[in-house]
Amino acid sequence: MAKRDYYEVLGLSRNASEQDIKKAFRRLAMKHHPDRNPDDSEAISKFKEAKEAHDVLTDARKRSAYDQFGHAGVGGAQGGFGGGGPGDFGGGSFSDIFGEVFGDIFGGGRAPGGGRRVHRGSDLRYDLSLTLEEAVSGKDVKIRIPTAVECHHCGGSGAKPGTQPKTCPTCQGLGQVRMQQGFFSVQQTCPQCRGSGSIIEDACHHCRGSGRLREEKTLSVKVPAGVDNGDRIRLAGEGEIGDKGGPPGDLYVQIQVQEHPIFTRDDNNLYCEVPISFTTAALGGEFQVPTLDGKVMLKVPHGTQSGKMFRMRSKGIKPVRGGPVGDLICRVMVETPINLTERQKELLQELDESFTAGGDRHSPHSTSWLDRAKSFFEKMGL
């Protein structure tokens, strides 16, 4: 009988990832394994078929040959599936299959090829404080960060120079021990070596057996123009070193923009409050206001009210990811005179009397508000 296509056996397309292949085999293994179906020859056959497909398609070399030449390209792939009893298919019992294929569910276990799993190093975070001007224009910054590096004296082994760690006798170097719990075999971290797979009898006195030393290193960080508070810059591979030869983690530089004495940022726009005198608000005027590029003239028309917004196009911030430059929005605040002299008070009183004589020509908003308030009081019977 002709063999079925391996991808068809697992119910996958030919571009399936290795993770997809493992997931599909897990599902079929749990369903058809002989330990769960001891008297079902069809289930036994399906398990053998799925195991063969899994072993070929998770091996990069065999999968490449199979994709090119089909079953003829992997003629020896099925050699390990003959003979044996119901619990000995593919060279192992259900508990062996469970430990190899499902071990990552419980953490630890063996890496492909029977070696110890390596662990990626931890990611690090560095808070970088910038002024608004630096965040807007960008800059190159050198930072010093504390980090763990491989011990130069023991080469990261943790053992005294000239000695080597010994294989843990409890787990035989796997870092895991297997506990039988009813039908399932569950892997747990070895209590003697704590998952390392080895025991150090004579520790390196420099790193005290950890295989790591704490050091500081200097890194250059290119801050792009336009970054904002909370943005992160990722420096790949600049985090903590990995365990047991694992890859290092990453360093994330977190941007913190300092408060500015004049400007407030909102996305790509800048806001600022501009105090103007009572006279300028009434008569109008023109004066200089600061921007991040220099000075510009702001023209205030006569009769300007406090809180009026004036927008200056393209005087804001260019976004870090591209796009139009933001605006500068100036909010004018009319400043009430204080510390008046007696003569100034007299002049203001005279001015107010002249305003009152002019009726609502000089203060239309106030007159309109008073009329609405009067109507409200009458309605409420007040």
Automatic annotation (TrEMBL):
Residues 138-216 form the CR-type domain. Keywords: Chaperone, Cytoplasm, DNA replication, Metal-binding, Repeat, Stress response, Zinc, Zinc-finger. Transmembrane segments: none annotated. Coiled coil: none annotated. It is found in: Cytoplasm. Its cofactor is Zn(2+). Residues 5-70 form the J domain. One of its GO terms (biological process) is DNA replication. The keyword Metal-binding applies. GO terms for cellular component: cytoplasm. Binds 2 Zn(2+) ions per monomer. GO terms for molecular function: ATP binding; heat shock protein binding; unfolded protein binding; zinc ion binding. Zn(2+) 1 binds at C151, C154, C204, C207. CXXCXGXG motif repeats lie at residues 151-158, 168-175, 190-197, 204-211. The keyword Metal-binding applies. InterPro entries: DnaJ (IPR012724), DnaJ_C (IPR002939), DnaJ_domain (IPR001623), DnaJ_domain_CS (IPR018253), HSP40/DnaJ_pept-bd (IPR008971), HSP_DnaJ_Cys-rich_dom (IPR001305), HSP_DnaJ_Cys-rich_dom_sf (IPR036410), J_dom_sf (IPR036869). Zn(2+) 2 binds at C168, C171, C190, C193. Belongs to the DnaJ family. Homodimer. Participates actively in the response to hyperosmotic and heat shock by preventing the aggregation of stress-denatured proteins and by disaggregating proteins, also in an autonomous, DnaK-independent fashion. Unfolded proteins bind initially to DnaJ; upon interaction with the DnaJ-bound protein, DnaK hydrolyzes its bound ATP, resulting in the formation of a stable complex. GrpE releases ADP from DnaK; ATP binding to DnaK triggers the release of the substrate protein, thus completing the reaction cycle. The J domain is necessary and sufficient to stimulate DnaK ATPase activity. Zinc center 1 plays an important role in the autonomous, DnaK-independent chaperone activity of DnaJ. Zinc center 2 is essential for interaction with DnaK and for DnaJ activity. This is Chaperone protein DnaJ.
